[in-house]
Amino acid sequence: MLEDFKRTDLFCDYYAKWIEVYKQGAIRKVTLDKYIMTHQWLKKLVPELQLCEVNRIVYQQILNDYAAYHERQTTMDFHHQLKGAVLDAVDEGLIDRDPTRKAIIKGKSPKAKKLKYLNQFELHTLLSGLDLKGEVNWDWFILLVAKTGMRFSEALAITPNDFDFAHQSLSISKTWDYKAGEGFQPTKNKSSVRKLQIDWQLVIQFSELVKGLPADEPIFVKGKVYNSTVNDILERHCRRLKIPVISIHGLRHTHASLLLFAGVSIASVARRLGHASMTTTQKTYLHIIQELENKDVDLVMRSLSSLS
Q: Residue 172: enclosing H or E segment and its boundaries?
């Protein structure tokens, strides 16, 4: 256990044991994998560093070396994943003083990320070109994501029981662990648990589609599921219909973009997407919000000029 460590033991070995004691079984696998990746970087950057050698300068140098390969936000995450273990080592007398105090977070400038999404005409073209047979296929999945803006793992976890056709709503309360194949998992955050209003066309289509299906089993999961499989199907549709090629996640962006352009408030879009805060929505769709603000300025100017 951790109390068996000495000041001369390796920092990376302590961190590996700390993950095992405090994180395994307490956090989601996707989060645990990030801690394990941080451990891999420790072994790469400071394989021989002893616990007693970790001071502010050494710790800052670890952050700087990591930042040389990563963006600032990623370096911040790396720092937060290390800090808990470091502070525990300080409490246990393995490190003299808190070396994380006043740490400076550096990192490469983030790459310009342009969201890929379809406009209203392109989305209509895509949905009209789907092969919506009387039985479940991935085209039905594409339709559902396009009309709800769900995350890939959320849509995989949808069961017939999640639909409330009488009230035209769909409950999202879980995800499907398609990467590890471990079945239902919690949502990304508390805000991701939500109820979405769906249009009457979707109600009619899915009320027929799910008839006779097991009420509490995923509609779309039949064995191992790969994100690439669905993206390949979507790409073939896009190329055949001569519209921009997007991914399943791009359909989520398309859904949000169309709502924003239609005048839906950022708060409502954030709730529909299951974002933890409006800040996430604002950051993700900044370019669209700026475009809408420019239109608002034109509207304000026209309104003011009419007063003279």
A: strand 169-172
